[in-house]
Amino acid sequence: MKRIGVLALQGAVREHLQTIEACGAKAVPVKKPAELLDLDALVLPGGESTTMRRLIDRYRFMDPLRDFAETGKPMFGTCAGLILLAGEVAGYEEPHLGVMDVKVERNSFGRQIDSFEADLEIKGLDAPFNAVFIRAPHIISAGPDTEVLCEYDGKIVMARNAQFLGCSFHPELTLDHRITDYFINMISVEHQSITI
Ligand code: GLN
């Protein structure tokens, strides 16, 4: 059985664990760096990226997470998790992990609409995906090897760059598991082009 870790320092951990199990894989909450070692893939959940970063530093997760990225195993960042993966964060001198070739901006959808739902057309999915956005970031620009999978309101909200998948919204908060399923399928095809 495929073992998918969820970084369990802060944020929407339980919902990702439940979604992974619903997709038929083993979900593993990751609270210590050593728990990264026997995983096939890792989810960085949504939450609050500066808080998560503080906890990453406090529990000495940064180098182990970058080592994990170097193995080529898939990593999926949702919302704050996308901010953690990004190579550049607008307005900040340094990225967090900095492994995914995208530049992101935090809190992109306006203060008055901190949370909303939208039906998204996602490349490779045959029907719209109802997505929950909560103080969501968006991808301002993507490198040449990054495939844009979805735009909403003229903004990139989902993309894939090699083994890294990122989205602005929270796929784990709905009962539609197609995106998590897609991520789990990246385990065996991580360097191939996209087909959902
Ligand atoms: N606004 C949050 C941040 O910048 C992300 C919000 C989320 O993950 N739902 O970290």
TrEMBL record:
Keywords: Glutamine amidotransferase, Hydrolase, Lyase, Pyridoxal phosphate. It catalyses: L-glutamine + H2O = L-glutamate + NH4(+); aldehydo-D-ribose 5-phosphate + D-glyceraldehyde 3-phosphate + L-glutamine = pyridoxal 5'-phosphate + L-glutamate + phosphate + 3 H2O + H(+). Its EC number is 4.3.3.6, 3.5.1.2. One of its GO terms (biological process) is L-glutamine catabolic process. Coiled coil: none annotated. One of its GO terms (molecular function) is pyridoxal 5'-phosphate synthase (glutamine hydrolysing) activity. It comes from the Bacteria. L-glutamine binds at G47, E48, S49, R106, I134, R135. The keyword Lyase applies. Pfam families: SNO. The active site is at C79 (nucleophile), H170 (charge relay system), E172 (charge relay system). InterPro entries: Class_I_gatase-like, PdxT/SNO, PdxT/SNO_CS. Pathway: Cofactor biosynthesis; pyridoxal 5'-phosphate biosynthesis. GO terms for cellular component: cytosol; glutaminase complex. Catalyzes the hydrolysis of glutamine to glutamate and ammonia as part of the biosynthesis of pyridoxal 5'-phosphate. The resulting ammonia molecule is channeled to the active site of PdxS. Belongs to the glutaminase PdxT/SNO family. In the presence of PdxS, forms a dodecamer of heterodimers. Only shows activity in the heterodimer. This is Pyridoxal 5'-phosphate synthase subunit PdxT.
